[in-house]
Structures are given as C-alpha cells and as structure tokens.
Amino acid sequence: MMLLRRTAVARRSVSTFSIQLSLQRHLLGAHEDFSMQNTLFRRSHQPNVDYQTSAVMSLGLPKASVLPTAEEIAYGFNQYPMVESATATKPGFINVKLDDEWIAKHAVHVAADGVCPRKAAHPEHVLVDFASPNMGKELHVGHLRSSVLGDTICNVLEFQGACHSNGGMPTSEAGQRVTRVSHVGDLGAAIATLLVQAVDTSDNAANDLPVEFTTDSTTVVTLGQWYERGKHRLGNGDAAFKADVDRTVLALQRDDGSWKAPWELTCAVSRDAHNRLYKRLGVQVHERGESSYLTLIPTVLEKLKSVTVESQGALCIFVDGPEKTPMLVRKQDGGFLYATTDLAALYSRVFGWENDPTAYDRLVYVTDTSQSLHFRHLFDTAKLAGWLDKRPVQLQHVGFGLVMGEDGTKLSSRKGGATTLEALLDEAALESKQRSIVAEADHGAIGDAAVRYYDLAQHRERNYKFSYASVLNLKGNTAPYLLYASARLQGILRKANVAAPSWNAYLLSVNDPTTLLSSVANGWHPNERALALVLGQFEDALLETQHNWYAHQSHPHFLADYLFRLTSQFHAFYETCHVQNNSSRLVLCASTDAVLRRGLQLLGIAAQDRM
Question: Locate the DALR anticodon binding domain: which residues (predicted)?
C-alpha cells in the first residue's frame, strides 16, 4: 500500500550539510516501505539532472504502478526549496535538479561551517588498532597501508562522528573520542630469534655480521640482519638454536628479567626508526606492545575456561566446531601465542584494565586481508565467552590488499630484495626531484605525500600496482595534482586586489558571502555552478568514506575521489571564468580552498602554498 506523506515531510527541519541525507529525508516520508537503505540518490551526469534514485523500483510494486508512483513522488519533490525540478522517467527513476540559489548558499555554508570539527554530546569512544609492526624489523611496504589507512580512519572519526544505524537516521553531529594504538610485536618468536642471534658473537663474526650489541652501534638495519640470519638458521634445522629461541620466548613471556637490557635496547632502536617514518608520513599513533598485557593473560585464560579445550597439552578454542582447526591460546610448553595477547588486548579494551581503564564502544582493527580469519576467530571467541553480552561493543576488522610491483608481483627494491618503507619514500623523494615537480627544498615532503595519497586513493580491499610514474603524475588522481591546485589557489589570492592574508580571512571579510554568491547564481557560467555543487557534496564524501552508505566499512578512497573531482572542477572553473576583481568568484575560490585544505588534512597531507 502506498502512503504519501508530503505535508509531514515538508514541515521537517533538515539541519545537515549532506545533500544526500536531505534528499533521503524528503523521500522517506513518501512511502511507508522506504528505508535509509533503499532510498539512496546517486549523482547524475545527465543534462539538467543532479541526482537520481531508483527507490520506487525497490518497492516491489506491480509494473503498471511503478512509473505513476515515481511521478507522484517527483511531483511532491517540487515543493522543497532545494529542488528546482523533479521528474520521473521510465521505468521508475526520480530525477532531481537542485535550485541554483540553494546550491550557492549551501556551498558557502559548507565552506564556512561544514569544514569545522563536530562537537559531541554523547560521543562513542573508539579504539583503532593499526600499524602494529614487530620490534626488531624495519617497516616494509605492508606497514604503509596499515599506517596511513588507520591514521586516516582516525582523522575522519575525530572530525566527523559516528553514523548510527539502529534503524534511525544517521547523524554527523557527534565527534568521536578516538584512541590510536599500535599493537607492536615485542614478545614472540621473531624478537626472540633476533635476540639469540644478536648475542651469538661467534656466529655473527663468521657470517660478517655486526658483533656489538650496544646503544651506540646498533641500528634497526643491524637488528634486521640478525633476525634474517636467525631465521635462516631455523630454516636449516639448527636444533640447538631453535631450543635457545624457544627458551627465550618463555623467558620474555614470564618477564624473568634475563633478557631485559637487550630487549629494551631492541625496542628502543626499533621505536626510534618506526617513529621517524611515521613522522614522514604524518601518522600519529601510540605504541602499546604485546608485553603490556602480560599480567592480564592469566585472568583472560581463566575467563575463557568455558570455551577452551586441552588437546595434547595445548589449550585450544574450537571456534568453528570440533572438526575444524582450533585457535591455539597456549602452547604445550606453557608459552603464549599471537592469539593469546590479542584476546588479552580485546578483553582489556572491552572492559578496561590497568594499562588503559577505558571500556571502549567500538574496536577497529586495520590489517591486511590475510588476517581476516584470525580476527573472525577472535571476535567469535569474545561472543562465545559472553563478553559481548555484558558489553555490546562493536568489533570491526578493516582489511586491505597488497602493494604490488608494476609487473603484478611482490614489490621489490632495485637490488631485488624486499622493499623497506624508508627505501620506498626515499626513492619517491628522488623521483620527485628528478621530475622537477617542486623546488629541491620540498621534494621530500612532496614524495612522502604522494606515496601516502596514492595508497589512500586505491580501493582498500584490492591489491594495487605501485609505480613512481603514477604516484608522482601531475595529472590525475594524485597528490601532486591536488597540491598544485592548493598552490594555484594561493597564487590567485596573492594576485587578487584584496587585503587578506588567507582565503579564510577573505571569506570572513566579505559582507554576507552567502547572499553575494546566491545573488549571481541565476547568471552562472556552467563551471561556476558545477564547482559550487561539488563543494556542497563534501559532507556526502565524508559519510561515504566513513560508512560507505550503511555498509559500515571505512573506505578512504571515496574522500580521495571527491577531492580529485573538486580539484578537476576547480581547474575547469579557473580556465573558463575570470576571477580577478569578481567578488562572487573569489568567494568560490575561498570556499574551494577551505574544503580542499580540510580534505587533504583528513587524508594526512599538508597543502602547499607554492609549486
């Protein structure tokens, strides 16, 4: 049964920066079977159509009723101030063209207020677990993805707030309290292998490896060399070496102090190297290693007694039933595993513990997709143990694909070995300099930004091919292209005959910029209208980035795509519309600068004043 409720919807106040949500709110009242999931509008490139929805076709109406229903709903849309015209087309699409004056007002509204972080009355407290390298190893290209994706997800959460989908309308008013954690590996077999090898001076000397293990002589490269040598010995079946490694793992996990000094040195050297690269990439994260949960592990294993089974001396959890491979939480020798410390961390985050008393509302883990099964087992164990019955915490694994070479194989260095993240960034800086993208003083920053942006611009769940030519391209969806637009905007400001030190100051100095821009909207050049429309879509890009429209999966590439559209439209506008001594067009420039800078900031990239 169709139930049209135009009058009720017309009285509803729409206080949002989102065009998409405004249109959906109008549509929701038009039929009793409409929901947030089946009323999405899509941007349209058809002439005189800005948005289109196929919502009516999702209602399961008789074929003969679809188009008449769409026509009736479209007719009702024409009463809304934001709509210039709404029509229905076969087989049941509703097409909407937005009002030019409304677009102008909305664009300035977004640039003035929509780029400001939200305040929260009752925010969620979210923990995002990302980066999380092993101590004793250099960061590699896999850490690039986890680090920049996790950092960007945090940026957007902090800025935007949650979109709750408990059957109601998503909200974007509640900014989040976000905790950023790097769950570093500092207890397992990897660091034990390194430590045992590091103190074996005779083997190191015989293999031309450093023999001194001191603060002054040890680097993260040295640590990596020791680890690789130790791994080689394990692979060759060195039984005595393996026994030493196993004993060292237990000693570290029991915190008996026997390896305290070399362990602390390894962690300190690794931490300094990792933080140096995080700084280059603009990544902010707080280290909290596996070792910080040591005192909690016995308590957690006790809490898991109802779901654990002892098998051949090991403690297991048969998450998928007795016929499937279990998740091991304690080895035969009493040692712990990766899963054990992850469960302890999860318990701590759900209920709070001495190293962090916060009981979080949502936990987000950012790792490559190969760990999807591990995190499913982890989350299912929390459910089986009844933890989530006591506190219904949202658990989310945000998986990502791999960084590949241009030939589709694993990315490697020019010498044929595995590519470290530092080598990747250094090469990008060198390529930037050789391509004369920017002045020499800036090529390092441009290279780092280009690598970060290119990663974020890719679909998170897919593998992608890395090439410096693509990463540093001045044309296309790249950081150099966007940064050139930010620099161009500053050049326009310097040439403009205005007494303002920044575009933000200019926008504040204009007497009623909203009225100024809307007053000329009826005589707009098509590229003026197109730019204003894209500016007004900033909030939609953020909602799509954070939740992919109710799929509840973070996808930063949507924000990158939006900034590319904005930048492309700005360039088209600038090439066709004279801006000097034209106040309304300067307002559009100021609005573009505000949105572009905020978007770049959310992606962790600093805008450029000159290029």
Answer: 482-611
Helix or strand or coil: residue 27? helix
* Burial group, residue 242, by CB count within 10 angstroms (0-12, 13-18, 19+): middle
Residue ranges making up the domain that contains 10:
6-98
Phi, psi of 214 (to 5 degrees): -130, 165
What CATH number should be reported for the domain holding residue 35? Answer: 3.30.1360.70
Banded model confidence at residue 142, pLDDT cuts 50, 70, 90: confident
Tokens 């030939």 sit on residue: 407
Provide the CA 167 distance to its chain's centre, in angstroms. 25
Could you tell me if residue 33 is inside a domain? yes
Q: Which residues contact 192 (CB under 8 A, 6 or more apart)?
A: 245, 246, 248, 249, 252
Would you put residue 156 in left (φ > 0), alpha (ψ -120 to 50) or beta? alpha
Specify the 3-state DSSP secondary structure of 126: strand
What is the residue type of 96?
A: V
Distances in Å between the Cα of 480 and the Cα atoms of 7, 392, 475, 609 are 49, 44, 8, 13
- The number of folded domains in the chain is 3
Could you give the CA distance from residue 180 to residue 399 in angstroms, rounded to a whole number?
17
Among 6, 11, 22, 20, which residue's Cα sits nearest to residue 72?
6
Nearest alpha carbon to residue 52 among 81, 77, 79: 77
Residues in the chain: 611
**Alpha-carbon torsion (27, 29, 33, 34), positive or negative:** positive
How does pLDDT run across 560-597, given as a tens digit for each residue? 999 999 999 999 999 999 999 899 999 999 999 999 99
Let me know how many helices (H) and strands (E) the chain has, helices first.
24, 14
Q: Is residue 377 assigned to a domain?
A: no
pTM score, two decimals?
0.91
Q: Tell whether 355 is covered by a domain.
A: no
DSSP strands (E only) in 259-357? 286-287, 309-311, 314-317, 327-330
Q: Which among 230, 251, 280 is the end of a domain?
A: 280
